[in-house]
């Protein structure tokens, strides 16, 4: 058998498999439509029907990765299913998702990574605007950055939770690669635009390569790219999406100081998420201004053997030198050993607020 004949046989086999895959995807889509019909059928009059279930999607993606036999990697297979699920959900209800914009930001990339490309993403000017969009019902969900592995906490997100009644219903992590971009690679660079967090994540590289060039913090990396596309002698630090959007050249790629530079984003909404089997919870605790206050907050977790994944401190708005603790820990609020801990915290804390329980990031 010749090379042409062998290739022809393989291509015929691929065509046949493609047809079967397409038929099965459409069968799945019809099942999704039937799920929507059943939910609407049994909904109470005036009740808002919930179509997106974060815990269910997390369980499906985990199963996809567990049963994957290759040669595709587990995460690659899960990303394919992520898009299938996104398209199927759009048949039930097209989701409106607000994110910290404008178009081309890492937050938009995080939104697409979590929800898939079938959602309708709407960029907002600030983190506070993302919260307002969801609170008003103009968007079903919002996506906001909460911490970076290099620069730490995003304070505006934490501060928004102090007054918002929204819940955390998911999380997504995104590897952040920063590129130095401009419209003319041969031009001398006299000014570099970027978001303050990105400038911090590339500080050492900038000190070594552009020590005397002015660094200007702007509202987002996408805004930095927009300015660099219009101003001579300027450059931007941003990602690939912004480079493509504003037709900029990559002068230097991957200039972040740490190769494992990662940002964690939160999915915010009005619904409470049920347990998925692998969950995290977030709470806000205001302690009394007295010796051992922090110990009283942390001791219940230690006694119950619950692992804390993050603790941050922010100034409270009740007076000078008062503080609020944001705590993330493993487990769901409905888990048997979690409820007693939260009850104990309510007794010792000056103020207590449950921010949500949600599936751990799958992808």
Structure in words:
By secondary structure, this protein is an alpha/beta fold. Among the domains are: 179-260, 3-Layer(aba) Sandwich (D-Maltodextrin-Binding Protein, domain 2); 272-359, Alpha-Beta Plaits (2-Layer Sandwich). It contains 12 helices and 15 strands. The strands form 3 sheets. Strands 1, 2, 3, 4, 5 and 11 form a 6-stranded mixed β-sheet that branches. The protein has a 5-stranded mixed β-sheet with strand order 8-7-9-6-10. It is globular and about 80 Å long. The relative contact order is 0.13. The model has no long low-confidence stretch (mean pLDDT 93).
Task: Give the SSE map.
Elements: H1 3-42, H2 54-67, H3 74-92, E1 96-100, H4 106-115, E2 120-124, H5 127-136, E3 141-148, E4 152-153, H6 155-163, E5 167-175, E6 179-182, E7 191-195, H7 196-201, H8 203-209, E8 214-218, H9 221-230, E9 234-238, H10 240-245, E10 249-252, E11 262-269, E12 279-286, H11 293-304, E13 308-315, E14 323-330, H12 338-348, E15 351-359
Parallel strand pairs: 1-2, 1-3, 7-8, 7-9
Antiparallel strand pairs: 3-4, 3-11, 5-11, 6-9, 6-10, 12-14, 12-15, 13-14
GO molecular function, one term: prephenate dehydratase activity
Keywords: Amino-acid biosynthesis, Aromatic amino acid biosynthesis, Coiled coil, Cytoplasm, Isomerase, Lyase, Multifunctional enzyme, Phenylalanine biosynthesis
Domain ACT: 282-359
Essential attributes:
single chain; 363 residues; D-Maltodextrin-Binding Protein, domain 2; six-stranded mixed sheet; five-stranded mixed sheet
